[in-house]
Each structure stands twice: as structure tokens, then as C-alpha cells.
Amino acid sequence: xxxxxxxxxxxxxxxxxxxxxxAKGHRLVLTGRDAERLQTLADRLDTPCHIAAGDVAxxxxxxxxxxxxxxxxxxxxxxxxxxxxxxxxxLHLTREADFEAVMKHNFYSAAYCLKAxxxxxxxxxxxxxxxxxxxxxxxxxxPNHEAIGSAKAAVAGLALSTAATYADKGIRxxxxxxxxxxxPLAGRLTDSDEAIAxxxxxxxxxxxxxxxxxxxxxxxxxxxxxxxxxxxxxxxDGGQALIHPLPRG
Length: 249
Description:
By secondary structure, the protein is α/β, with parallel strands linked by helices. It has seven helices and seven strands, in the order βαβαβαβαβαβααβ.
């Protein structure tokens, strides 16, 4: 039975992924900052779960969480990093502290966790797979996304280089790049039917993503069916990064 570690497990994408993997028989390590929400998630999943609260954006936390999880569950062969934040302000209004916070929550958390996962995978020497969550804004220019676009581009680069380093060690690493997803993280962009309808219009498929849209691709990339896929940055965005429909009359 595969054991998969999900960070940000109680969030919109993390919880959808947990449900998908539990249905496929994975044992789960669920981490995040809110132990109560993690326990609520674990209670509704029909699979063995290990839960641990901690802020993986802080140095040393991810490594400690991985060690304690493997002591309880055995080798972790799958990893999904669903931690992140958003920040929408133009460059001239972005403070140095804002850049630091955005990089910490998005890039540093991914780097610390991926390193902890790779450290474990190199020890147990079993085929392993990781998937990180980037963003459409990492490679498609959107106004006022300078800080978050840069941080998510760093996540994409982290996935690509790590995949190259460990491909011959049986460790696969990929990154998915969602467009706007209905979630508390998206705040006012998705918190009402009116907002959802308005923000669906720029998308070629005329809709906003949902947690299971992202989780489905992540679950596939973690599976044996994707055993020859690594080093990929994959859009999951209704075509928004690449498709530009003609204006409607």
C-alpha cells in the first residue's frame, strides 16, 4: 500500500486529493497548520491516516514532520505539496516584507518539504513521486501578480531541476499549474455566485476550477500509470494560458 504525504491537506485542493487517494487505497500523512481541521478530514477518510500540525514554511519543520510520519507509517513514496498563498498588488505597491512573505509561503515551503521527501526517498530507495502546485501566473502575464508570479515560477523551476537531479534514482517530480480555483484562498474572486460568473468569463471554457479538477491530475501524476512522466510543468486551467478565443459579438 502506498503512503502519500499531503501538505496543506485541509485546504480545497489538499482535501480533494486526500479523498481521491483514500479511495484508491493510499495510506495518508496529512499535515497543515490546523490540527483540528486535519483530524476532521482524517475522520471522514476510509484509510489509515497520520496527522501532524506544523508550519512547513519554517526551517526544520518539514524534516521533523517527515521523520515522525515515517516512524508511524513506514516509507513515504508519494508527496503532494498543496501549501501556498496569493498576493495581488502592482509592483510599486509591493513592500519588501510582502516579497519575503510570498516567497516564504510558496517557494520556501515547497523547497523545504521537497527536500525532506527526497531525503526519505533516497534512504528507502523505492520508486517515489512528488507533485507541487504552481500557478497559471507563473508563465502567463497577469497584471498585479509580480510577487506571486515570481514565487510560483520559482516553484516550477524547483520541480524541474529536482526532477533532473533524481530521475535516475527513481524519484519523479512534476508541477501542476492551476488557473483560478473556487476556494477560501481566492477570497473575493470566488466568494459569491456573481463573482464566480464574472471571473469565469476570461476562461476559454467559461468556468473556474474546483478542487477535484486539480486533485484528479495530481492523483494521476502520483500513480504508477504516470511512471514515465517527470520534470513536467502542466497547466490545468481550461486552456487559459494558451488559448485566446475571438471576442464574442
